[in-house]
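STRUCTURE:
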């Protein structure tokens, strides 16, 4: 009997609190402050999905032969009528993928399925973005999701300091 060993698809790892704090602080200083200046209000800093939603998404991906998820960074249009509070803010779009081995290595191709006679990407979006929906109202006392990340002072040249 021949046994075929399946290659592990794991590429991520669990990280420590210090790592999370560092990458979020860096993001806020290098990207988020520029988004705020452009939008004229706070951009979203996180996107939340329930465990049930994610389990359902993963089940659907598996039903269609997928074995992974790409997380695409995106932004809602400035005239986003479906939820005006989201207008212009960044988001995360989760897209189903299937890994394929090629001569150049492993690729992760987006999965398309047929819906109502048309080919559609298998994707999930519209999670709860923070801000504006942070649960605790965005307070800096540590009670809200984004307040617990701490403060970052960003020097903006002649424009002064920005507290994020």
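SEQUENCE:
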């Amino acid at each position: 009997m021949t046994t075929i060993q399946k290659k592990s698809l794991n590429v991520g790892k669990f990280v420590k609190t210090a790592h999370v704090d560092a990458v979020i602080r860096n993001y806020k200083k290098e990207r988020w402050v520029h988004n705020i200046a452009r939008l004229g209000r706070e951009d979203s800093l996180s996107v939340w999905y329930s465990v049930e939603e994610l389990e359902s998404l993963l089940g659907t991906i598996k039903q269609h032969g997928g074995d992974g998820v790409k997380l695409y960074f995106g932004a809602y249009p400035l005239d986003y009528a479906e939820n005006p509070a989201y207008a212009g803010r960044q988001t995360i779009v989760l897209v189903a993928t299937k890994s394929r081995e090629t001569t150049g290595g492993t690729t992760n191709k987006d999965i398309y399925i047929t819906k109502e006679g048309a080919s559609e990407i298998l994707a999930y979006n519209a999670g709860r973005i923070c801000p504006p929906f942070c649960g605790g109202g965005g307070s800096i006392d540590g009670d809200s999701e984004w307040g617990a990340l701490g403060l970052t002072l960003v020097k903006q040249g002649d424009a002064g300091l920005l507290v994020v």
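REMARK: The longest strand covers residues 90-102.
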